[in-house]
Design a protein that fits this description.
The complex is a heterodimer of chains A (349) and B (322). Chain A is an alpha+beta fold and 349 residues long. Helices cover 24% and strands 32% of the residues of chain A. Chain A has two domains: 4-235, P-loop containing nucleotide triphosphate hydrolases (Rossmann fold, 3-Layer(aba) Sandwich); 242-347, OB fold (Dihydrolipoamide Acetyltransferase, E2P) (Beta Barrel), CATH 2.40.50.140. Chain A has a six-stranded mixed sheet, sandwiched between helices. In chain A, helix 3 crosses helix 4. Chain A is globular, with a radius of gyration of 24 Å. Chain B has 13 helices and no strands. Chain B has one domain: MetI-like fold (Orthogonal Bundle), CATH 1.10.3720.10. Chain B starts with 11 loop residues before the first helix and ends with a helix. Chain B has helices spanning 12-27, 33-62, 82-89, 91-123, 129-141, 144-154, 161-170, 186-211, 215-223, 228-256, 260-265, 277-286, 291-321. The chains are: A alpha+beta (349), B mainly alpha (322). At the A-B interface, strand 6 of A face helix 9 and helix 10 of B. The structure holds adenosine-5'-diphosphate and magnesium ion. Adenosine-5'-diphosphate binds at residues 13, 16, 18, 36, 38-44 of chain A. Magnesium ion binds next to helix 1 of chain A.
């Protein structure tokens, strides 16, 4: 395993800047997740690390060595592609064994067999080892693709949305499993996803990508609690953060330049049901809202509220739906608001 | 359907679609859907029966007789399996089968090797590859009759370009050898012409095979540190194999019944060195007028090609299954 460094890496396709001056330092054994919407440049960033694309500017270092001009085969990386790129004419077993049959490894047949079977257990595909790789479901194919990466012991693992095609249950299982395997191997892993839960649960650090730029890099907690702009704040949190003009909340002490405030759903408490905010409530950030709809999710209820022209969402306890009806008025109190200026940049007050 | 409660799917277009066949079948003079379907395919079936199936059955029948098409009034006797026995022991027939085997084997081997190599080069997408693809395809677009005549001139010992090219590379005297006139060279002369003409076709099919391999497979192999050599042997070749096998099948069947081009080039000569099966068959049927005998020969050829093709298609399917 090794550390990986991107230094001011840029890549353009004709007029489109896919990756724009990205710098990241990934420590040995670190799990870094790049999070961003489709088209943010996540795949391109991974391909730059793998050597499948050549950057216009900047350099890529693996284990302290500048590998910018190196071919993929010289870089000692393993890659899980977004579209599970199995070798369709080979069996599952041969797919898993393929990377081991490189002259870079000097394994004999029984060592390869043992390694393949061990990895097949890890990704829970052992029972299909002798299937044709095209006779698998999408989820099974993706597990084989992950297994093909894990079968080697590369300097760095690169994974491009490896779980996005799996069903929810398997995704949850593999999320935990992948994190465990990574810890166990002490693997350096650069992982790409658009799924915030994957990012939050697995990452040591998350990098937020938007239009090719690395907007923020930090631990999941830093990114969640201390976002640098509206875009990052809105990317994490389910339901998404409530964004309101500062003027909507009465009596707030917002910083001078702030124009938007963001309040996460868990920071918006219902303090009075069936009542309007009255003058003798002392807390500063209070607001009256009308309940429009309750979404029952089992462990929690999402309250969709209307506040003048604005819609907001907050959480209520499990049985709140028995106590209030759509149309009822309620009073809310906001805590820990985040402020943003006109350009969406964070204003710290 | 009539008893189902109305659903959202019962939009007017769906209703119309559901109703149309029933109304139509009533309006076409009381014909049912099935009958209408039969009317549509009947012309094709009749044509197939008339020009394929009936002659085949008729030939089977004739193959058991001593019928001669040039003696219409002669008595036709049933000779049982005698025609078949004589064919299988006739040295001339075996000579023809050997000439055919030589021709089929070498043309397929050369066309597959050269065709695949060309396809592999063109798939590298070098500059001007579209232009060269078109140039390479030209021979295939000519008629075999044109190609036959054309190559007779190229093979002329005194004026032919072919002999001069050979001279250029080997230094041998141009008129010291005759491609079409020599017993040793003539079988190779027809192989060269067929290869010249049909390699482009094999190349085209191989190119389709190579283009069907997605780029990301190669990228995966590159990341997996497979050498170029290994990428070729364990990805390119196996994934293009069904296409290559298809090309071999088409060329094999086609060359097993080769007639026109060889007829124009050598007429089966010198002696009978290039007399492939179809030429022998034509001699028996329309020069010697042994209709019953040649029918039996045709049936044997048919069964042989049909059987081999069937075995081959099974193998092809197994390769595709992997
Ligand atoms: N080979 C390519 N040619 C042209 N444009 C590309 C190519 N690959 C990616 N792009 C463009 O670069 C941008 C980033 O793409 P990508 O890295 O695949 O994003 P993501 O993986 O985050 O969805 C997109 O706008 C995409 O259309
Ligand atoms: Mg992508």
């Amino acid at each position: 395993m090794a550390n990986v460094t991107l230094r001011g890496v840029s890549k353009r396709f004709k007029n489109l800047v896919a990756v724009d001056d990205v710098s990241i330092d990934i420590a040995d054994g670190e799990f870094v997740v790049l999070l961003g919407p489709t088209g943010a440049g996540k795949t391109t960033t991974l391909r730059l690390v793998a050597g499948l694309e050549k950057p216009e500017a900047g350099s890529v270092l693996i284990d302290g060595k500048d590998v910018t001009g190196f071919a993929p085969s010289q870089r000692d990386v393993s890659f899980v592609f977004q579209q599970y790129s199995l070798y369709p004419h080979l069996s599952v077993r041969d797919n898993l064994a393929f990377p081991l049959k490189s002259p870079a490894h000097s394994l004999n047949a029984s060592q390869i067999k043992a390694r393949v079977e061990h990895v097949a257990e890890l990704v829970q595909i052992a029972h299909k080892l002798d299937n044709r790789s095209t006779a698998l479901s999408g989820g099974e194919m993706q597990r084989v693709a992950i297994g093909r990466a894990l079968v080697r012991d590369p300097a760095v693992f690169l994974m491009d949305e490896p779980l996005s095609s799996l069903d929810a249950k398997l995704r949850g299982d593999l999320r935990v499993e992948l994190k465990r395997i990574q810890k166990e191997l002490g693997a350096t892993l650069l992982y790409v996803t658009h799924d915030q839960i994957e990012a939050m649960t697995m990452a040591d650090r998350i990098g937020i990508l938007d239009e090719g730029r690395l907007v923020q890099l930090g631990t999941p907690r830093e990114i969640y609690e201390d976002p640098v702009n509206v875009h990052v704040a809105a990317r994490l949190g389910q339901p998404a953060i409530n964004l309101l003009p500062v003027s909507v909340m009465g009596g707030v002490s917002a910083p001078q330049s702030a124009s938007t405030m963001g309040i996460r759903t868990e920071h918006l408490d219902v303090i009075g049901q069936g009542t309007r905010a009255s003058d003798n409530d002392d807390a500063a950030m209070k607001v009256a809202a009308t309940l429009e709809r309750v979404e029952f999710l089992g462990d929690q209820n999402r309250l969709h509220l209307r506040m003048g022209d604005h819609r907001i969402v907050t959480l209520g306890d499990g049985d709140i739906e028995y106590r209030i009806q759509p149309g009822s008025e309620m009073t809310l109190r906001a805590r820990n608001a985040l402020y943003f200026d006109q350009n969406g940049e964070r204003v710290r007050g | 359907m009539p008893n189902n409660p109305p659903s959202i799917l019962d939009r007017s277009a769906d209703k119309a679609a559901a109703l149309t066949p029933a109304r139509m079948s009533r309006s076409i003079k009381g014909l049912s859907d099935r009958a209408v379907a039969w009317w549509f395919i009947a012309p094709t079936i009749i044509l197939l029966l008339a020009i394929n199936i009936f002659p085949l059955i008729w030939a089977v029948k004739l193959s058991f007789t001593n019928y001669r098409a040039n003696r219409l009034n002669a008595e036709v006797k049933d000779v049982g399996l005698r025609n078949y026995e004589r064919i299988l022991t006739d040295p001339d027939i075996w000579q023809a089968m050997q000439a055919t085997a030589h021709f089929v084997f070498w043309t397929i081997l050369l066309q597959t090797l050269i065709g695949f190599a060309l396809a592999y080069l063109i798939d590298r997408k070098f500059r001007g590859h579209a232009f060269w693809t078109t140039v390479i395809l030209i021979p295939m677009m000519l008629s075999p009759a044109v190609v036959g005549n054309f190559w007779r001139f190229l093979y002329q010992p005194q004026i032919g370009l072919f002999n001069y090219i050979v001279t250029f590379f080997t230094g041998a005297e141009p008129s010291s050898f005759q491609m079409l006139g020599s017993v040793d060279l003539a079988p190779w002369a027809i192989v060269i012409v067929d290869t010249w003409m049909w390699t482009p076709y094999v190349m085209l099919i191989c190119l389709a095979g190579l283009r069907s391999i997605p780029d990301y497979i190669y990228e995966a192999a590159e990341v997996d540190r497979a050498s170029n050599w290994r990428r070729f042997w364990s990805i390119t070749l196996p994934m293009a194999l069904p296409f290559i096998m298809l090309a071999v099948l088409f060329r094999g069947i086609e060359n097993f019944k080769m007639f026109d081009m060889v007829m124009l080039l050598t007429g089966g000569g010198p002696g009978s060195t290039t007399e492939v099966a179809s030429i022998t068959l034509k001699r028996e049927a329309f020069e010697k007028w042994r209709t019953g005998y040649s029918s039996a020969f045709a049936i044997i050829l048919f069964v042989a090609v049909f059987g081999l093709a069937n075995i081959y298609v099974k193998a092809l399917n197994r390769v595709k299954q992997r």
